[in-house]
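Throughout our pipeline, every protein is held as a single compact record rather than as scattered files. The record that follows is passed on verbatim for readers who wish to inspect the format:
___
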Amino acid sequence: MRGYDAYDPASTAPEAEAVFTGRVAKYEEPLDVDGVTQDVYRVDVVSLLRGNLHGAVRVTYGPEREPRPRLAAGSTYVFATRAWPDTAKDGYAQLYQGPMQPVTDTELATWKRAAALPTTPE
């Protein structure tokens, strides 16, 4: 059970170590995480709203709701992530579970406000 609303940027961003725009380079593979299938993507970090990620990172994304569409290679999305224990192998978990659509100016403004909120203490 999580202590935040994973469908609300203002609730999700304070839980994230990194919030960034990223261009999906490719879908890599499915990954089983505690019995839940996650899709793994190679994502190129475009701009940071919070955190210190750069270059290409692996992001796991397993939307809780059906249908589970894949992220489109070449499209740019906003990611709100937390590192898995082994970032080289598993990468970063996408915390936001709302609709993932290519980023728009309106969505980017929403996430910029959310990323400016104080982080939640661990």
